[in-house]
Description:
- The complex is a heterodimer.
- Chain A is an alpha/beta fold.
- Chain A has helices at residues 33-43, 60-71, 87-96, 105-109, 112-121, 154-164, 185-194, 208-216, 227-230, 236-245, and strands at 6-14, 17-22, 25-29, 48-52, 78-81, 100-103, 126-135, 138-143, 148-153, 168-173, 199-202, 222-225.
- Chain A has a single domain, classed as Aldolase class I (TIM Barrel, Alpha-Beta Barrel), CATH 3.20.20.70.
- Chain A has an eight-stranded parallel beta barrel with strand order 1-4-5-6-7-10-11-12, surrounded by eight helices.
- In chain A, strand 4, helix 2 (60-71) and strand 5 form a beta-alpha-beta unit.
- In chain A, helix 8 (208-216) crosses helix 10 (236-245).
- The two termini of chain A are 15 Å apart.
- By secondary structure, chain B is of the alpha/beta class.
- Chain B has five helices and twelve strands.
- The two termini of chain B are 14 Å apart.
- The A-B interface holds A 1-4, 6, 41, 46, 71-73, 75-77, 94-97, 99, 122-124, 167-168, 196-198, 221-222, 251 and B 12, 14-15, 18-19, 21-22, 47-48, 113-114, 116-124, 142, 144, 146, 161-163, 184-187, 190-191.
Amino acid sequence: MSLAVRIIPCLDVRGGRVVKGINFKDIVDAGDPAEAAKRYDAEGADEICMLDIDASFEERSTTIETVKSIASQVFIPFTVGGGIKSLKDIDMLLKSGADKVSINTSAILNPKLIEEASKEYGAQCIVLAIDAKKDGEIWNVYTHGGKNKTDLNAIEWAKKGQDLGAGEILMTSMDKDGTKSGFDNNLYMELSNNLSIPVIASGGAGELSHLVDAVKLGKADALLAASIFHYEEISIKKVKNALRDEGFEVRL
Amino acid sequence: MRLGVIDYGASNIHSVARALQSLGSKVSIVDTPEKFKKIDKLVFPGQGSMGSCLNKLKETEMINPLLDAIKSKPFLGICLGLQILFNSSEESKEKGLGVINGCITKIKDINKENLKIPHMGWNNVKIEKKHELFSGIEDKQFFYFVHSFVAAKTEAFITTTNYGEDFVSSLATENIFATQFHPEKSGEIGLKFLENFINWKI
């Protein structure tokens, strides 16, 4: 018996409302985060992820209210990311009801944050999020929501993150994100072969077969998607049925 | 009826408290020895390592009132709250509470499946013996797990789960129930389980 492949709908949130970017741009407003989370829970989501886009200090109180609102209504694992810079930020989010935090840019600027957070709260609640784009033969890491290129190799950075104490890697392919043309399975396979912690694949889901392939070919442990679930293009149940038909364990 | 949730300063107790409150329960946070007197049932939601948990319980002088409560009140231990009931753990030099005989061991990858540790995610819970806390819950349902250590054996087992090896995913003695999984994070089925605990009469 193995663990069920996790299906994680992601709520991109700005100012307390759900939005979804296409290639990180052109954001459309569409809904209340707690209502959306409840709907996903009822549809069989295995976890809920909330990403606070453009989270800034001024908007922190809104974020905290949204986290509390979701956590008091939905009783499955709940990850929160966006603008997390310090142990204090992490502490506040965990106390507000997040089970895990996802850290992206801040981990690159200050890798010690992953190490210290993992020691303080345990590896299981620290998700290292990476935005990667293929440049030639290698995948480079980008920061600030995909705006700035770094010199980091995405596979190497994920390995470093694991060594620092991250419990999971959430890897978004910027080449694929918003394109609905399928996941970057080579990236996930490379990652899975190099890591001993779970890999969450994100970016590119458009059809049912894309999600199945990310598990089959990319060996992803979990799949994260926003727009296909948000606009009800593909239901979580359909994804799980398709995975089950291919012989993968799912929670139905 | 008043439910107490133990807070020894290290565990994320809020998700358990929220889940119980969503079921209509009155929940009190128990963080001093005195507060044990005011509660009818006790939930121990552990997280982190056993050694630091025991040290924090000692610092807050809650070991003795906790042991008294475990003897006399309906008790639900979750995750580390299950492991701490045992005599000892490979994770810690500190002795456990010794309420259940046995030792907690690191998850073993018996079939060399390159298992990822911690065991994190949704896994099947096989009901081996009937128990009130599983009433209305079908066999082999998925519950949410996050842990690296397990109780491999105890006669008190109620359910088992397989990850690398078969381990005890829940156990019970008279007034004690303990789970390795997190009912507060196991969706509808987890809430049903917690509701059964709220209604549990000994």
